[in-house]
Structure formats: structure tokens, C-alpha cells
Amino acid sequence: MKINWIIEEEDIRHIKEFVDSQSGKSFVKNRIAKNVNGHIPDFNRDILWNAMISCLLTTQQRSGPESSVTKFICINPFPLNLNRCAEQTNLKKFVEGTITNFGGLRRAKTIGDEVLHNFKWLKNGGWQEIESIAKVLVEKRGQSPQFDDKYIERKAAKIAIDNLKGFGPKQARNLWQSLGLTRFEIPIDSRITKWFNQNGFPLRLSAGALSDENYYNFVMDGIQEACNASDAYPCVLDAAIFASFDQEWPEDKLIW
To answer: CA 218 to CA 1: how far, in whole Å?
Structure first.
């Protein structure tokens, strides 16, 4: 069976008017510069590692501009950078202690376990798989965006889902988008589902059901079709929706 997405003029109007209404916000401007129009972002193991841990920190925790998560992620040097983690004889305990001692952060034990698992996978061949798909994404990022780029972006998300502990469909997209390497696959959360439920998605979206990969991909297909018809990149709509829920983001905290 196949689904034929029919995007109506009202759908297009909603997206265009909403993105335009948020276009002056720094968070949206940063997303456009980082993921669409600006220079190709740097990519290396240190950057990927920091982004991975940042994503784990945002799971089930507030991540607005004044949140503890954002304050922790913005520390320079990053407290859980790859070099420091690689030096540890007990990585799980080190991660737990660092997160707990900072204060205001949840899931320290869980994140410690996830980081240890991911470190081992990356060390045992995972880096090569990540770097291989990242090379393709970087090449695509340097070219004019094509709608078919969504397929390689979804493949990158699948690699994270299948191998990185703590990464479901949402955080897998969050990982690559935060690196500035994706435009079409976005992290769908309760903010996104709320907006589309209010603006014409053909069925009632459930944020809870998004943990199912097939359901997530189905919803993502619909969002991509709507954005394509509206000449708007999903990553920019995502930024507009995100920005509409928060106070203005300071320039020094534009990490997403």
C-alpha cells in the first residue's frame, strides 16, 4: 500500500506565515546559517562526541536558553569531552559524577551507562561507520539541497538508532541536525506534534507513539511533503516552532 500526501493551499499558508513570523529570531537565523546557507560546518570525532552527549543530556530534561542542560553544554572546555573521557579508567563513574556534581541535571546514572556503551562501540569500529556517513552528509551540505537528500539523512539517523544507546528516532535526528549536516530529517517532539495538530495534519499526532520508528518515519514523510510544497526546509520549520516556545536565545547559547 502507498500513501499519497495531498498538500492543500491552507497547509502551505500556515507553514509560510508561521516561518515568516519567526524569521527574525536569532534561533531561526542561526539554524538557517548553520544548516542551510552558511559555510559547511566542521566535523571531527571531538565535535561528534560532544554533540552525542549533549543529545543524551536533553532527553527528558528542559533545554531552553536558561536551563541547566544548556549551561552545562556551553561550558568551555566541555566537561565530558572525548579526551577526558578516553583517559578514564571508570568512564561510567566519571560521567555520573560530573553530571551529578554540576547540579540541576537528571539521569546521571543512565547517561553514564549510555556513554560507556557508545564509547565502546565507537572504539570498536563505530567511528569508521560514523565518519563514512558523515563524509556523505558533509558533501551534500556543500551542494544545493535536493529533496532526495532526505534518504541519506534518514540512513544516518538509522545508524545512530541501531548503534548508539539512548538514541531513538528523535535524538538520532537531533544529533545530525545539531551538527549542521541535515535539512530534511528533524527531531519530532511534543512541540512539533502540537503545532501540526493545530495546523492541519490529516491525523491526530501522538508524541508518545514517535518512539516507534515506522510511525516516526510516516509522520516525517508528511512533514517533509508539506515543507517541500511550501518551499520551507523542515529544519527551519523546526527552528521556528522551537523558537516560538522559548524566550529569545542569546548569541552565546545558540547550540542547536
So the answer is: 13
Spatial CA neighbour of 11 closest among 183, 196, 193 = 196
What whole-number distance in Å separates Cα of residue 17 and Cα of residue 129? 40
Can you tell me which residue has the cell 508524541?
207
* Distance (Å, whole) CA 194 – CA 206: 9
Would you state the cell numbers that stand for residue 127, as one nine-digit string?
567511528
pLDDT digits (tens, 9 = 90+) for 115-155: 999 999 999 999 999 999 999 999 999 998 999 999 999 99
| H, E, C per residue of 150-162 | HHHHHHHHHHHHH
- Dihedral sign from CA coordinates of 91, 94, 96, 102: negative
Share of the chain above pLDDT 90, in %: 82
Structure-block grid coordinates of residue 178: 545539531
Query: Using one digit for the tens of pLDDT, what is the confidence trace for 33-70?
Result: 999 997 899 999 999 999 999 999 998 877 777 789 98
On whether the CB atoms of residues 34 and 256 are closer than 8 A, the answer is no
CA separation for the pair 233, 215 (Å, rounded): 21
Task: Give the residue carrying C-alpha cell 566537561.
Answer: 79
Q: Phi/psi zone of residue 231: left (φ > 0), alpha (ψ -120 to 50 degrees), beta? A: left
pLDDT tens digits, one per residue of 156-173 = 999 999 999 999 999 999
CA-nearest of 159, 184, 152, 140 to 41 is 140
The number of C-alpha atoms within 13 Å of 108 and in the hemisphere containing its C-beta is: 13
The pTM for the full model equals 0.93
